[in-house]
Amino acid sequence: MVSETIDLLKSELPVEQETLILAGDHITGLVLVDVVNGFCTVGAGNLAPRVPDKQISGMVDESVQLARVFCQNKWPVFAFLDSHHPDIPEHPYPPHCIAGTDESKLVPELQWLENEPNVTLRCKDCIDGFLGSIEKDGSNVFVDWVKTNQIKDILVVGICTDICVLDFVCSALSARNRGILTPLDDVIVYSRGCATFDLPVQVARNIKGTLAHPQELMHHIGLYMAKGRGAKVVSEVSFVKLSEP
Questions:
Q1: Residue 235, number of CB atoms within 10 A of its CB
Q2: Is residue 244 predicted with pLDDT exceeding 60?
Q3: Distance, CA of 21 to chain centre
């Protein structure tokens, strides 16, 4: 019954997905959103999966593969790391990804990024990474990254599709439309490189004040909302080697 309902909703709210081919002929930046232990590693914290999760592990695998190709080509990579002060809660969520703990660190498969010269790491203490990139002087680390590298497109992966990924994508699109992110053209969301958490209704109803969050449905809704705001959504990413001059 649940799968039939999801299929019905997908048919009523379709998300047309494209194939992205990267040839290196113009600058594309990779943005990884919160691929940290606290959201991805089994048993790592309050918001981590309790058991192995196929959608989340698939997202990690796709993120690792993309990150390796981007780093091999010295293309720009920007990674957000959810990181919170222990005394500053982020309602409505329980304490998670406390700064200085393993929760706020990249998953083991991506920790090598810390030593890559083309990678910018940004700890953020809020859902929206764009807002989390604002410095005390009003500058924005993400905006500076786009401008410094003259990035034309960003390819976004990470977790959660309908929360941190979606909020960042929407802010980036608004900033692009306002001319704040020149020369950025497209914000591209890779569906298989994104994931969200699973909290079935039968579990949520036993936790006071908690909303149900069916994984497959909310992942789809996140993609649908991103596309509706102007992002491109792709289901495949491939690379073409440029011919030697």
A1: 15
A2: no
A3: 20
Measure Cα distances from 56 to 28, 69, 119 in Å. 24, 20, 22
pLDDT digits (tens, 9 = 90+) for 77-98: 999 999 999 888 888 888 899 9
Helices (H), 73-214: 129-132, 141-149, 166-177, 201-204
Tokens (6 digits) for 199? 């909290």
Please say whether the beta carbons of 45 and 38 come within 8 A.
Answer: yes
Q: For residue 245, name the pLDDT band (cuts at 50, 70, 90).
A: very low
Q: What does the alpha-carbon distance between residue 208 and residue 49 come to, in Å, rounded to a whole number?
A: 20
pLDDT of the residue at 1: 55
Check if the beta carbon of residue 120 is closer than 8 Å to that of residue 133.
no
Phi, psi dihedrals of residue 137, rounded to the nearest 5°: -85, 5
Q: Bridge-partner residues for 79, per DSSP? A: 32, 121
CA distances to 123, 140, 143, 145, 154 from 134, rounded to whole Å, are 11, 4, 9, 12, 19
Rounded average pLDDT over 155-176: 98
Q: Could you tell me which residues come within 8 angstroms of residue 180 by beta carbon, excluding any fewer than 6 positions away?
A: 143
Identity of residue 74: K
